[in-house]
Design a protein that fits this description.
Rossmann fold; eight-stranded mixed sheet
Length: about 400
């Protein structure tokens, strides 16, 4: 749908509508991939989506303390691994480069051996690459279209709000009825949920029933007792990324932080669109809004195990950050700040850790080689039988 003068002249919505008219409904993953990654009109190929002037604000943009704590944690994992000199740093979806900059800053102070390692950024957007280049110019990063071209070495890195933007598929449960009056909700089948047209407007439509092989491939992801209209999401691209990371880390070693909003199981119909910091319809001006979905950490964990690694967690972001010392670091930073700076610092910490903001909905997981033990931040701490921060 890209690359020709006529395609560039048409809006992305019009291109998708024309494609559906010509070839029939498309998968939700194809729609999402076009909206985010179309080289002419895709969301990440246009304006800067981050910050107050964009559509959403990520944790690294809220406070440099977030990057510092992530950097300290990876430094700890690097030390536990014996500080391998042949290791490589990898970040998936680096945004403006803010997170890597803040992590490198703390590595310069506490783990110089880590700060000297090559930095690899997996990023497809030319505009974001330019911003990352400006932010990270002193570190001479190397960009990659995918993880496949990253060096085969011990990997230490991070993916913050990366997996939620990978194209997702949806399936919908439809019950079978002998007659209009005799509907057996226990009998039915999963169907592909596609993007089609209703009076030339984009909408969801039911597709074909899943074949036996398709159902077998995703059986563990699906709810055990579906009911009419229930929706489930599958993200094969996420499995591909975890499989690639896990195979490297299982063979060569390393540790990889995954931070995203999601849950430890299928999120159902979690697809959402955001423009100008407000929710909008998912078919609102294709390519003009951010599309994302809840990450299924249970699915990521199964894929990691199948490829020789383990995914520790997930745990809530707020709990993780507080347990690895965010409160102490904020207090230290506040001691050298004026009153206004301290208020801003406290507000940022609250935004990162409060259950009412990012603290609960965002989760943290750690990908490491198969083994035993629970590293700091992921252990359970209880008082009077209740989990506490």
């Amino acid at each position: 749908m890209t690359g020709t003068p006529s395609a560039k002249a048409m809006s992305l919505s019009d291109q998708i509508i024309a494609d559906i008219k010509a070839n029939g409904p498309i998968g939700l993953d194809s729609y999402m991939a076009a909206c985010l990654g179309d080289t002419d009109h895709g969301y990440y190929f246009g304006k800067d989506p981050f910050g107050a002037d964009g559509d959403f604000t990520t944790a690294p943009e809220i406070s440099g303390l977030f990057g510092e704590m992530c950097g300290l944690y990876l430094a700890h994992m690097f030390e536990l691994a014996g500080t391998p000199t042949n290791a490589e740093i990898v970040e998936l979806g680096p945004g403006r480069g803010t997170l890597m900059r803040d992590m490198r800053h703390v590595w310069d102070m506490v783990m110089p051996a880590l700060s000297r390692l090559p930095v690899n950024l997996v990023e497809t957007s030319p505009s974001l690459r330019k911003q990352q280049g400006r932010t990270l110019a002193p570190f001479e990063p190397v960009w990659h279209e995918s993880l496949a071209s990253c060096p085969d070495a011990p990997l230490f890195g991070i993916a913050n709000e990366f997996f939620d933007a990978l194209p997702v598929r949806q399936v919908v449960w439809r019950t079978k009825a002998d007659t209009a009056e005799n509907v057996d909700t226990a009998k039915g089948s999963w169907h592909h949920r596609l993007v089609g047209l209703d009076n030339d407007e984009l909408c969801f439509v039911d597709g074909a029933e899943l074949g036996a092989d398709e159902h077998a491939d995703i059986k563990l992801t699906l709810p055990e007792a579906p009911s009419e209209g229930m929706i489930a999401e599958i993200c094969p691209t996420a499995d591909d990324v975890i499989a690639a990371l896990s195979s490297r880390i299982a063979r060569r070693g390393g540790a990889f932080l995954i931070i995203d909003y999601g849950r430890n199981g299928n999120g159902g119909d979690s697809l959402q669109a955001v423009a100008d910091h407000k929710p909008v319809d998912v078919f609102h001006q294709a390519g003009r809004a951010d599309l994302s979905h809840w990450v299924d950490f249970a699915a990521l964990s199964r894929c990691a195990r199948n490829n020789g690694c383990r995914l520790i967690g997930p745990v809530p972001q707020g709990r993780f950050l507080m347990r690895i010392g965010l409160a102490s670091r904020a207090e230290q930073a506040g001691a050298a700040a004026d009153n206004e700076q301290r208020r801003a610092l406290l507000a940022a910490v609250d935004r990162l850790t409060s259950p009412a903001q990012m603290g609960e909905v965002f989760k943290v997981a750690l990908l490491v080689p198969d083994g035993e033990g629970t590293p700091p931040g992921f252990d359970e701490i209880t008082m009077n039988g209740e989990d506490i921060i």
